[in-house]
Design goal:
Blueprint lengths: L1 H16 L7 E10 L2 H13 L3 E2 L3 E4 L5 E12 L2 H18 L2 E6 L5
Antiparallel strand pairs: 1-4, 1-5, 2-4, 3-4
Helix pairs in contact: 2-3
GO molecular function, one term: endoribonuclease inhibitor activity
Protein name: Regulator of ribonuclease activity B
Pfam family, one: RraB
């Protein structure tokens, strides 16, 4: 979890240093991937039940020709490291249950 804390702190710090508005709520997009579509779908359902908005899964081909399936789960919150990490912690048991990989999060600059 320390890796995600460091990455989250860096992203938030960079956004704020660039002038992104700290007073607004941000749509935080958490990214997930799995080679098994059925497991990915089950994780998406559980994340939805946990209060996250979930996008439709997409199929992607990797450089080595392997296929993976991806989706995002979004939550709206302040651009705050602890709030974002709390959401990641909330997601972790679901991802571990189905063997789905967490691939980080992102958001957009807001003036």
């Amino acid at each position: 979890m320390q890796e995600w804390r460091d990455e989250t702190t860096a992203i938030v710090t960079e956004l704020l240093a660039d002038g992104s508005n700290p007073e607004l709520d941000y749509e935080i997009e958490h990214h997930f991937a799995c080679q098994d579509f059925d497991l990915l779908e089950k994780a998406a359902v559980d994340l939805f039940k946990a209060g996250f908005e979930v996008t439709d899964a997409e199929e992607m081909e990797l450089d080595d020709g392997a296929t993976i399936f991806c989706f995002d789960a979004t939550a709206e919150c302040a651009l705050n490291v602890e709030l974002i990490l709390a959401d990641i912690e909330k997601m972790r048991p679901i991802l571990e249950k189905y063997g789905v990989d967490y691939d980080g999060w992102g958001t957009y600059f807001q003036e």
